[in-house]
Amino acid sequence: MSRGKLQRPPLATLDFVSDPLTSTTAPLAATLDVIPAHLASRYNAPMRPLYVLLAALPFSAACAHTAPRNAAPNANSNAASGVVAQGGAFPTRAEAAIRDSVKQVLDRAARDSAFPGAIAVVGTRDHVVTEYAVGHLDWAPSPVPNDRTLWDLASLTKVIGLTNGMMQLVAEKKVDLDAPVQRYLPNWTGPNKNRVTIRNLLTHTSGLPAFKAYDEITHDPDSLAKLMFNTPLDTTPGAKMVYSDIGAYMAGRVLEKVTGQPLDLYLHEHVFEPAGMHDTQYKPPASLIPRIAPTEVDPRRGGLVRGKVHDERAYYLGGVSAHAGLFSDAHDLTRFAQMYLHGGEIGGVRVLPRDEIRVFTTRQVQDRALGWQKPDGNNSAGHLMSEQAFGHTGFTGTSIWIDPPRDIFIILLTNRVNPTRANTKIGRVRVQLADAVMSTVLNPQLMSKP
Predict the structure, then answer these.
(1) Taking the CA of residue 379 as centre, how many other CA atoms within 13 Å lie in the half-sphere pointing to its CB?
(2) Which end of the chain is less packed: N or C, by CB atoms within 10 Å?
(3) 150-328 has which CATH code?
(4) DSSP designation for 327
């Protein structure tokens, strides 16, 4: 496949916007193009005039500085290699509509420089409807992403790793969700910490702050771990939801104490390998670097970060933490999503307990389940997913959403922080992709059998 040389665009021309990465209130014009009239009432009434206005505007009038990049050769494959047998749950015309809408969303996002490269996978419990890739691993000449490209998952680490380990321990009655954290970590002391439960950690209601820039204080792993462990509460436990990397880190410490194993080893042995997720790992070896999408340019770490975790705290902790550090690919995450849609089983192997999946994916507070995020009309789930759906995002540009009643999952993997985290366009793209797919799934004309 031939392509022109791609140069990293100057930072001043990236046309950054201020969209939050994990929430937005409206889909973009391309989403509105594919949402049928029968779904219009599902959108918030006060925002409808804005939807109409956006629909009349071009997706981006300022994206001509970046040339469109070709899709991967396998972009519209009906199966990610080695994942599932053929045979789909959706009518052919519905699958065609999903493929077209995914292609439209990603192509436009690539032209808009939302990321250097990306791959999306949409599928059901037994079938991959579409797998589509755009761009390249870097702004400089580099490979096209495919289903074996490794991406820094960032905060998807919390739900691909930590949440499932905790789910297993709860099912085995080794961890009680409503027990105080101090039952497992008696040395975790300080004002009100005796009132913090495991449930508080997993719902981000512990009272811990979102994060602390401890990496600006020390780069020594032991010293950083002590600072994380000893972080005082900001608020009364249970008073409010504050999304907290430190809370996730503490849940990881509980898992290690209960199992007697390092976090990465436990997850490898009890989650990833049983699920056939052989590429999902912390600290990938140097031999895998050609497959890894680079993230941000960080002068403190010698330039473009590739093969090392992007999150600074996780990096200086040694690369392994419950809040960040995992790398994975579209192939493995497809298996993961299908495992959830099969009630915790994949390839004849039971990995997660069915009953605990229901418990952990039930809304607890605001848009939070246990570990997982829930749709609320203002986050990356878009506006059309069911109450039973659950998902999460990662700061580097990754996301996953699973909607069991509709038998659908949507995976988006990007390195939007390359070359800088100031590029926040991914927030719009996530919502646009979710709404475009779900508008087809909920369209009775497309979903009815001919």
Answers:
(1) 20
(2) C
(3) 3.40.710.10
(4) E
